[in-house]
Amino acid sequence: MSRFVMEFERPLAELEEKLVDLKALDLAAELHLGEEIAELEAEVEQLRVTVYQALSPWERVQVARHPERPKTQDYVAALCSEVFELHGDRLYGDDEAIFAGLATIAGRRCMVIGHRKGKNTKENIRRNFGSPHPEGLRKARRAMLMAEKFGLPLVTFVDTQGAHPGLEAEERGQGWAIAENLATLAALRVPVVAVGIGEGGSGGALAIGFGDRLIMLENAYYSVISPEACASILYKDSSRAPETSACLQMTADDLVRLGIADEIVPEPLGGAHRDAAAVFARVESAIASALDTLCGQELGGLVEKRFVRLSSIGVFTEGE
Question: I need a labelling partner for 314 at 20 to 30 A (CA). Which of 11, 274, 293, 307 fits?
Fold first, then answer.
């Protein structure tokens, strides 16, 4: 099966295909091929570094959306043991766009919540492409309160373009569900570690995506709005998303600089899907380190520090 190629990767992909074709030829019959292959390998490696070490914000968005990028269920399978999934919000139904469950990470029992995309069209339709309905966010809140009740740290994996914007979601209280989650997270008396693994769009991401630590993968993003939606509002033209991406200050580097995120987990050249096992190990180490620091703190002080952390984000001035 051929791999998915992003638009900015095409020159590199063409060289890589040419290299594969050359290697398939009979070297014994064509003695000069060895030299040509070595030169092309060097060219491919140089271009790979050039392409991936200077990605624009819009190109990072594309990497964050790569269909082969590891998803919440992959992190749960790789990092967690003794997993017990929770279902339903006890009000309406079970939204497969949100995973919630008990799990053990690095020897510590936790509550885990994450946006869950599909790995094929059928799964994506069933999981609404990772965009939660109100019942999904209420399921997440139920898991948050359960974590607090039993004194379990909370770990969340953020990967969504945003909460589902459809009429039925609004009828079932989408805005209210997001607001309740924000209030719950702000006051939750257990450590909360959020990990941005891909997309982080709007209230759908924020509803499970803040706490005491925010860990971002190198090519993940976190934004008040998707680049396309922002372009549609500002320019009435979603094709201008590359422009708005550069203005939204949403990359991992931007978030650390602004004091919103705490740590960046490096990815292999090309994205997390190029070496998922290495990324899983780095994420597990980052989560374990954060939990080791947070779990020893007094709970009241933890919540107070969280409030100070959140209220210090951003700068505003009052008019006369």
Answer: 293
What's the pTM value of the predicted model, to 2 decimals?
A: 0.89
Q: Could you tell me the CA-to-CA distances from 29 to 20, 59, 221 in Å, in that order?
A: 17, 42, 50
Is the separation of the CB atoms in 106 and 288 below 8 Å? yes
- Contact (Cβ atoms closer than 8 angstroms) between residue 208 and residue 191: no
Where do runs of H (alpha helix) occur along 221-298?
A: 227-235, 241-247, 252-257, 276-294
Question: Is residue 183 within 8 Å of residue 229, measured between CB atoms?
Answer: no
pLDDT in tens, 161-202: 999 989 999 999 999 999 999 999 999 999 999 999 999 988
CA dist 86 and 83 (Å) reads 10
Q: Which residues 6+ apart lie within 8 Å of 205 measured at CB?
A: 115, 158, 160, 162, 196, 199, 222
- Contact predicate 264/256, CB 8 Å: yes
- Model confidence over 47-73: pLDDT tens digits? 888 888 889 999 999 999 999 999 999
Going by DSSP bridges, is the β-strand pair 108-115/98-105 parallel, antiparallel, or unpaired? antiparallel
Distance CA 62, CA 177 (A): 29
Query: Which value, in Å, is the radius of gyration of the alpha carbons in the chain?
Result: 22
Compute the half-sphere exposure of residue 292: CA atoms within 13 Å on the CB side of its CA.
8
CATH architecture of 61-311: Alpha-Beta Complex (3.90)
Chain segment 230-246, per-residue pLDDT in tens: 999 999 999 999 999 98
Domain residue spans of the chain: 7-54, 61-311
Count other C-beta atoms under 10 Å from residue 7's C-beta: 8
